[in-house]
Structure formats: C-alpha cells, structure tokens
Specification:
The complex is a heterodimer of chains A (127) and B (147).
Chain A (H helix, E strand, L loop, with lengths): L1 H18 L2 H10 L4 E2 H7 L4 H13 L3 E6 L2 E6 L2 H36 L11
Antiparallel strand pairs in A: 1-3, 2-3
Helix pairs in contact in A: 1-4, 1-5, 3-4
Chain B lengths: L5 E7 L3 H9 L2 H4 L13 E4 L7 E5 L6 E10 L3 E6 L9 E10 L2 E9 L8 H8 L7 H8 L2
Antiparallel strand pairs in B: 1-7, 2-3, 3-4, 4-5, 5-6, 6-7
Classes of the chains: A mainly alpha (127), B alpha+beta (147).
Protein name (chain A): Winged helix-turn-helix transcriptional regulator
InterPro entries (chain A): ArsR-like_HTH, HTH_ArsR_DNA-bd_dom, WH-like_DNA-bd_sf, WH_DNA-bd_sf
Organism (chain A): Nocardioides islandensis
Amino acid sequence: MRNRSAAAHHDAGAVFDALGEPVRREIIARLHGGPSPVGKLADQLTVGRPAVSKHLRVLEGAGLVRHESHGTRNLYALAPEGMVVAQQWLVGMWDVALAAFADAVDEAARQQRADDVPIEDPGEEDS
Amino acid sequence: MTIAPLRREVLVDADRTLAFAVFTQRIGAWWPVDVHSVHGAGATVVFDAEEVGGRLVESKAGADDAVWGTVTRWEPVDAVAFTWHPGQGPERASQVSVTFEDSGGKTLVRLEHTGWEAFGERAQEAREEYDHGWPVVLDAYAALAAA
C-alpha cells in the first residue's frame, strides 16, 4: 500500500511539476485548440523554438502531451490521460478522508449502543 | 474543457443523525490532518458555526488559522455543502457537497466535488503545496481547463 501510494505520488508529481511553469501551461492552453507543430507554437509564444521543444519534452515526459508524425510533420497534441494520474491523487485524498470518517462513525455508533444498553428497567420515557 | 465532478460514497453503519454529527461536529476527530492539511500533524479542523456562512477552519498552535471554506448549505441529517479553497483565497474555491441518505438503517454518504474550473493558473504554488500532501494541485487541472 505504501509502495503503491509512493508510485502514484511520483507520477502525479511529474504532472504538477510539468504544469508548474507558465510557458508550459500556455502550451497546454494552445493545444486545446488542436494539434500543432512546434514552429506554430513558437510563433504564438514569446519564447524561441528550442525552448518550446524543451518544454514539449517535459510535458510529454509527464504524459500530458504526445506527438504524432504526419509525413514529415511532427504534430503535438494533448494527451488527456495525463490528467487521470492527477485526478486519481485527488480521489485518493477523499478516499482516505472518507475511510477515516467511516471509522469515526463506527466508533461513535459503538459508543452510542454501549450507552443505550439498558442496565436495569428502561421504563423512563421522554416528556 | 469541463472537468467531470469527482464523486465518492461510503456506507456507514449508523443512522443519519449520527453520520451527520460525526461529519460536521466531529470532523476534527477524523480528518487526516497528518496527510491532508495546510499545517500538518497536530492541526485540528472545525466548522466554526453550524449554519450557512460558518467556516471550516484549520488551527494549529503557533500558526495562523487556515480557512478551508465556507458553509453554503447546512441541513442537519440531510446535507452539508461548503466551498473548498484550502491554502488559497475564496476566489479560487471549488465546491464540496455531502449528502446523507437512509439506506435500510445505515447511511449512504455521498460526496461530490465540483467547480474545479474556477481555479486559476497557480501551478507553481500547487506543486509546492502538493509536496505537503495538499490538493491545491487542483490548480493544475485549471491550467488544462482554462483554455
């Protein structure tokens, strides 16, 4: 369990690291408009083509972007499955919290039952 | 791009009154602050008022209180909902809604987390806070959803 969690953290960490850079977020935003070659991305951004290529490699490494070859053209596109890792991490948070909540309810219910057990005559009534 | 709501549910062996009370009044007893909080182990969490407008506040000795969100719905035994912006301002809140449904004497607790699109682009800080195990990483989704 600890190992699985560590692996998930590692993957999600790569996603967040990749998105932690403004130019890379800008690239992601541009790619929402559809697949694009490196040159076109560089034209739209304020950084040069080599920098764009480098950012694309980071995004690809995190699983957020993938490239497709169309003849001589190399197009970059969003890889939505990259966000799945990040989403799983968030789901994991709620699962941990809700499991702790369920344990607390169990404990409280046990306590309540123990308190409610009539030791002698339970004849007392409300009002 | 819209992001699908996150939905989780858990069936607890207690009536709705108890399930609601544990979720709200006793959140400080069960919320896993050691892994999911702004201040880490030793912090406590509480709804500071049991009504709409009440706040979910994390406190720890020697640290400033961290407001995680504000109650938007307080309907004992049926539902509680609150905004969700731990580690950042209310303008970046998403929404968490929790409902309590009777299920043959047990209670089905459903949680829905929506509105992640409201987050801005703040992934640097998200990453930093992520290292502390905190889901401000939601920002990262926003980077993808914002376009």
